């Protein structure tokens, strides 16, 4: 399956001037919600991710994902893997595990839609560890930092690995500085 083609078909790969969750700026933005809003397509795409997880020599008890972007990915991944799905959510500006309990030694796969710096995934990993759980892998639809992938200390699986330029807000190239920036992702 050509995952990138699916993003283009759904209008999920945007071009312009975007502010990412990390605060960095980019010419491209993956609006995964535009792909995931198509339930059958979401099932098909995340099913490909589930195949990659199954191919790993890891053991897991559940899937956990950071809200908002990872919710549908996590739910679909858990469905394909036949396991539970937990999620973290924002409370006072930080991710927290409010609705679920993770048991000591429970093994989880972290699922997310897009990773650039991996900040939401890192927060989720720390939440799992603080609860006594063990993260056995990280699975994402899009890895935007293919040239320098984030090291989560566990196997990192993605469907699409891309190098997408990002810029510090104080060092924007002239073409981006001339365009108003938008922040279409999670707030």
> At CATH's second level, what is the architecture?
3-Layer(aba) Sandwich
As for the number of domains, it is: 1
CATH class: Alpha Beta
Total number of helices: 6
Give the terminus-to-terminus CA distance: 31 Å
**Shape annotation:** globular
Q: What is the H/E order?
A: HEEHHEHEEEHEEEH
CATH overall fold name: Rossmann fold
Describe what you observe in this structure.
This protein is of the alpha/beta class. It has a single domain, classed as 3-Layer(aba) Sandwich (Rossmann fold). It has six helices and nine strands, in the order αββααβαβββαβββα. The protein has a six-stranded mixed β-sheet with strand order 5-4-3-6-7-8, sandwiched between helices. β4 (84-91) and β5 (94-96) form a beta hairpin. It starts with a helix and ends in a 10-residue tail after the last helix. The model has no long low-confidence stretch (mean pLDDT 92).
Describe this protein with a few key phrases.
single chain; 187 residues; alpha/beta; Rossmann fold; 6-stranded mixed β-sheet; 6 helices; globular
């Amino acid at each position: 399956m050509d995952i990138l083609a699916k993003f283009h078909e759904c209008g999920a790969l945007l071009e312009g001037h975007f502010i990412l969750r990390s605060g960095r700026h980019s010419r491209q933005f993956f609006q995964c919600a535009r792909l995931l809003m198509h339930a059958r397509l979401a099932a098909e795409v995340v099913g490909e991710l589930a195949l990659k997880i199954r191919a790993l020599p890891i053991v897991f008890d559940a899937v956990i994902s950071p809200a908002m972007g990872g919710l549908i990915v996590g739910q679909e991944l858990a469905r394909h893997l036949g396991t539970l799905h937990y999620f973290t959510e924002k409370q006072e500006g930080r991710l927290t595990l409010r609705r679920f309990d993770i048991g000591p030694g429970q093994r989880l796969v972290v699922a997310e839609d897009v990773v650039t710096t991996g900040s939401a995934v890192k927060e989720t990993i720390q939440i799992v560890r603080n609860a006594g759980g063990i993260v056995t892998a990280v699975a994402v639809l899009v890895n935007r930092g293919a040239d320098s992938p984030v090291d989560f200390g566990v196997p990192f699986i993605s469907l699409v690995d891309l190098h997408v330029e990002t810029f510090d807000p104080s060092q924007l190239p002239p073409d981006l500085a001339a365009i108003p920036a938008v922040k279409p992702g999670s707030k």
